[in-house]
Amino acid sequence: MTQIRSQNFIGGRWVDPADCARAPITNPATSTVIGEVAASSRADVDRAVDAAESGWQTWRETTPRERSEYLFALADAMAANKSELADLESANVGKPILNARGEVDEAIDGLRFFAGAIRSTEGLASNGFRRGTTSIVRREPIGVVGLITAWNFPLMGAIWKVGAALAAGNACVLKPAEQTPLTTLALAELADPILPPGVLNVITGQGDPVGSALSQHPKIRMVSVTGAVTTGKAVAAAAAHTLKRVHLELGGNCPAIVFGDADLDAVVAGIRQAATVNSGQVCLSASRLLVAKSCYDDLLDRLVPAFESVRVGAPEEGEHIEMGPLAYRGHRDRVVDYIHSAQNAKILTGHLDPDSDSNFVTPTVITGVEQGDTIVQEEIFGPVVTVQPFDTDAQAVEWANGTPFGLAASLWTRDLNRAMNTAPRLEFGTVWMNDHLSMLPEMPHGGVKDSGYGSEGSSYGIDEFTQVKHLWIKHG
Fold first, then answer.
1. Is 140 part of the annotated catalytic residue set?
2. Is 133 a member of any domain?
3. For residue range 229-288, what is the model confidence (pLDDT) as tens digits?
4. Is 106 labeled as catalytic in the residue annotation?
5. Domain-located, residue 446
6. What is the pTM of this model?
7. Which of 79, 108, 115, 173 gets the most CB atoms within 10 Å of its CB?
8. Domain of 292?
């Protein structure tokens, strides 16, 4: 990797956008321009889709072993360049460098998982339904898929989609978020000498026209999106016109239920991490604390100083920095507006200056909110937690389920029976017990309700990019 690419990667070549337009990319910690990328148009989408369709004709014929070897080679190339990838991710998103390094390692591990998992994908064979016949079920690739990633985890988000899609035998057109495309372009640069032309195509640009064109394109058979609920609904509506498959990973606004018997030291340590990592810009972030009244005051006495101890600053300040800025100014303003939206709320900690030119928001703890408040019902997507005391377990479950979202939740208790009885009543795709935010490539990630549908990660994530075919064989 030698430079920030200002072109699209289409058909195994770096090409200028059709109208030669470019867009600046800034470092959110310093607000300085660090490069420029292609500002693509619908013509560029058409070109990328045609390249992907051509590449798929040979890629679809590869065996699982061959695809596995390609993906392992790409993972090795990432590992050989992981320091540069981490530096690029840190500069583009504002991540503390230790966080960026950890995410690159997780992305490499995820790609290696997909590379290995595809060799054990199974269909189903049976000859018991009718005499003289055998039925075989095959899982086959879908074709050309459009992938749209979010700005909070650019490289890791790309790998979760690209790894599964390529492992299953599809060709991809990948659009990174317009604010944070740099590591995705770097991924394309690493893939250039490894993958066959047209198998992976990367185009940069705004959601409209690029994202909308991918969603509407008649040659794209599936679109997978990570983003806001409004984005997911727009993509699903656009995709309906061509009846393409849609996979959506959307917002979170995740609750953490703290029962009276919980280990409060473990709770505080876990929530400190789960609410502030990546500046709270995580769909799985712990943003709503529901706390038993019996331990409410004690928890707040511990939580506030824990949040105040988070070391906030620009990544360039050194490895001691734990939390950087929000990814861009518009989002920072949105988070500040949410913080000030609750009428009777009390901000226990968190320094805010609505008129500041900075993209920083310090870790914030808010009490006095009501279940119907906007700050409780909507996703803040920043280093902010609201804290609500509950009377009964039933009330905690009701409040946890009482928003439009259903991505993840956590339970904190020493009572295994209570945890196991409560977890099935929670309407979320993931439920942690005495933990929050941990993820593994071997396990599925996905939500319900307004958090979307479909799985990422694990063999279920690979299955999302396949279609089932029944072969009927009559043999006498």
1. no
2. yes
3. 999 999 999 999 999 999 999 999 999 999 999 999 999 999 999 999 999 999 999 999
4. no
5. no
6. 0.96
7. 173
8. 254-440
